[in-house]
Amino acid sequence: MRDREAARYNADRAFRQYDAIDPQNRLVAAELELRWNRALTPFGEIESRIAAHDASTSEPSLLSPIHVTALAADLKAVWAAPTNARLKKRIVRTVIREVVADIDDEASEIVLLIHWVGGVHTELRLPKRRRGQRTARPAISSRPSANWCSSPMMI
Question: pLDDT tens, 115-124?
Fold first, then answer.
């Protein structure tokens, strides 16, 4: 997109220069027209590459509202499925409209207000890291204890 915007800017600038020239000055007008045409070439190439890309990508298959509701009902299973991070990011971008973060200094918490696409809002309160608190997790021993999954994680 930036290439497209830069090419458009260069073409517009070349046109403004060409448009501002006195028509009686034919040599300068011819040179500016040549520059304008040269500036239009990259813009056309970028536009054609964008059109070719849009034509080559397939439209996402639309799910029926019943399928979407079924997936939403079992979101934990969808999230835990063996997929890559890219798909999970797409899911998050699809269901979350905005996240607003605020700091509650009195409670020493970070307050996250999640605005979901459907209009529902969720507030999460996370403990604020105190000065001097470690950011890395402690080293894990080579022999895990029997109840490692039920013990709280130390951060």
Answer: 888 788 889 9
Q: What pTM was estimated for this model as a whole? A: 0.40
Token pair, residue 100, equals 């607003």
131: pLDDT strictly greater than 50: yes
Q: State the CB neighbour count (10 A cutoff) for residue 14.
A: 19
CB 11 within 8 A of CB 40: yes
Longest CA pairwise span in the chain (Å): 91
The sign of the torsion formed by the CA atoms of 10, 12, 16, 18 equals positive
Instruction: Say if residue 21 is exposed, middle or buried (CB neighbours under 10 Å; 0-12, 13-18, 19+).
Output: middle
